[in-house]
Automatic annotation (TrEMBL):
PROSITE patterns listed in its UniProt record: ACT, ASPARTOKINASE
Catalytic activity: L-aspartate + ATP = 4-phospho-L-aspartate + ADP
Record organism: Ruegeria intermedia
Binding site residues for substrate: T47, E74
GO biological process: homoserine biosynthetic process; lysine biosynthetic process via diaminopimelate; threonine biosynthetic process
Cross-referenced NCBIfam families: asp_kin_monofn, asp_kinases, PRK06635.1-2, PRK06635.1-4
GO annotation, cellular component aspect: cytosol
Alphabetized UniProt keyword annotations: Amino-acid biosynthesis, ATP-binding, Kinase, Lysine biosynthesis, Nucleotide-binding, Transferase
InterPro entries noted in UniProt: AceGlu_kinase-like_sf, ACT-like_dom_sf, ACT_Aspartokinase, ACT_dom, AKii-LysC-BS, Asp/Glu/Uridylate_kinase, Asp_kin_monofn, Asp_kinase
Binding positions (ATP): K7, F8, G9, G10, T174, D175, Y180, R185, K210, V211
Protein name: Aspartokinase
Family the entry assigns: Belongs to the aspartokinase family.
Length: 412
């Protein structure tokens, strides 16, 4: 039997009614003759609640226990989904990550998938089971501990299963009906794309468009998984949603094809460090040892042999970053005057493969922001994206102004 992977995100399994609706949708695919692997998220809001409890009890928590707690939301939905399917006379059972087992490395809270043995689930399909419901987001470390794959990780579970089982397609059911030029929740002119290239989707995801987790797009690209994003709230045809495809499959595209934002950014400045070889290495090694995801980096012009080093990282890693930098200072390896954290910033980015061949995008972006009176704090660019760090209160304005200026509401 051909295998289909269907993933349902938090809002698509938010309550029993939604679970029943999703189960009906699964029933449609079973009736077409598929063996279906369903990946479920926790009910919406559940993971945030669990993370909140961990933070309250232990701000600099043990990541192994964080994973033990936050992985639990998915277990509930997996069992409920299997029960709902059974009530519809569809043979189904649930699997937690460790039961598959979905094997990961030991990087707790951001684990990478190493292997997904297929024999266990395939044997059940062979015995007449039609749907394997798997708890997303979780796996098993080499030490036998429960791991999680990072926020939004059920998308990655889904794509990894699609690759392991050689599925015909991986359908990501969510609360919007596809991938848009920007988040439709903050820009009403956002336009749904029928297709988007892996490269652009990868950039949009990594720059904050949470509709797909970045790792899921990477995996789909590497294993050539046919990946589709669609809504679980509407009746769906076979052409619904957005397909993520190879660049060659897209005939024409705008120079800029999307705008992404990330609210969850902090800017940290190590004030007055010596301007000599090795200082950046000390700072960023210390941060990396502590597992801080440093994104943008700027070093100021030096003045009398001293300079400031500014970087950005996720807001929830500021406390850890401070701890790491304080430790190197106390060890006498680094001398600085002060550590300043600005947690009221956001990152806004424009993305498009057309930027490879067309210049002037950065100039236009900066002009648009300046016309809106928005000050740019940090800039980074790559071949197909430009990102700026700005005050968070201007984030939505910046997204809307850029969407207008690059005319993303109009197709190429
Ligand atoms: P799920 O719970 O189904 O995994 P997520 O909340 O993780 O859903 O992702 C879906 C959300 O992603 C949408 O509700 C939307 O607000 C947001 N989003 C951000 N950027 C985009 C985009 N470019 N296209 C579509 N959705 C986007
Ligand atoms: N429940 C997890 C989260 O909220 C994983 C997921 O939904 O993809 O991040
Ligand atoms: Mg998600």
């Amino acid at each position: 039997m051909p295998v289909l992977v269907m993933k349902f995100g938090g809002t698509s399994v938010a309550n029993l009614d939604r679970i029943r609706r999703a189960a009906k949708r699964i029933g449609v695919e079973v009736a077409k003759g598929y063996d279906v692997i369903v990946i479920v998220s926790a009910m919406s809001g559940k993971t945030n609640e669990l993370v909140g409890w961990v933070d309250e009890i232990s701000p600099l928590y043990d990541a192994r226990e964080y994973d033990a707690v936050v992985s639990s939301g998915e277990n509930v939905t997996a069992g409920l989904m299997a029960l709902t399917l059974q009530e519809m006379d569809i043979p189904a059972r649930s699997w937690q990550g460790w039961q598959v087992p979905l094997l990961t490395d030991g990087a707790h809270s951001a684990a990478r998938i190493l292997d997904i043995p297929t024999d266990n689930i395939n044997q059940k399909f062979g015995e007449g089971m039609k749907v394997a419901v798997v708890a997303g987001f979780q796996g098993l470390s080499p030490e036998g501990r429960i791991t999680t794959l990072g926020r939004g990780g059920s998308d990655t579970t889904a794509v990894a299963f699609a690759a392991a089982f050689d599925a015909e397609r991986c359908d990501i059911y969510t609360d919007v009906d596809g991938v848009y030029t920007t988040d439709p929740r903050i820009c009403e002119k956002a336009r749904k794309l029928d297709k988007i290239s892996f490269e652009e989707m990868l950039e949009l995801a990594s720059l904050g468009a949470k509709v797909l987790q970045t790792r899921s797009v990477e995996l789909a690209m590497r294993y050539k998984v046919k990946l589709r994003v669609l809504s679980s709230f509407e009746e769906q045809s076979d052409e619904a949603g957005t397909l993520v495809v190879d660049e060659e499959e897209i005939m024409e595209s705008n120079v800029v094809s999307g705008v992404a934002y990330s609210r969850d950014e902090a800017k940290m400045t190590v004030v007055s460090v010596a301007d000599r070889p090795g200082i950046a290495a000390i700072i960023f090694n210390a941060l990396s040892d502590e597992g801080i995801n440093v994104d943008m980096i700027v070093q100021n012009i030096s003045d009398e042999g001293r300079t400031d080093m500014t970087f950005s990282c996720p807001t929830n890693q500021v406390a850890r970053a401070e701890k790491a930098l304080l430790a190197v200072k106390e060890r006498g390896d680094l001398n600085y005057a002060e550590l300043v954290a600005d947690t009221d910033v956001a990152k806004v980015s424009v993305v498009g493969i057309g930027m490879r061949s067309q210049s002037g995008v950065a100039a236009k972006m900066f002009k648009v922001l300046s016309d809106e009176g928005i000050n740019i704090k940090v800039i980074t660019t790559s071949e197909i994206k430009i990102s700026v760090l700005i005050d968070r209160k201007y984030m939505e304005l910046a997204v809307q102004a850029l969407h207008d200026a690059f005319e993303l509401d109009k197709a190429a």
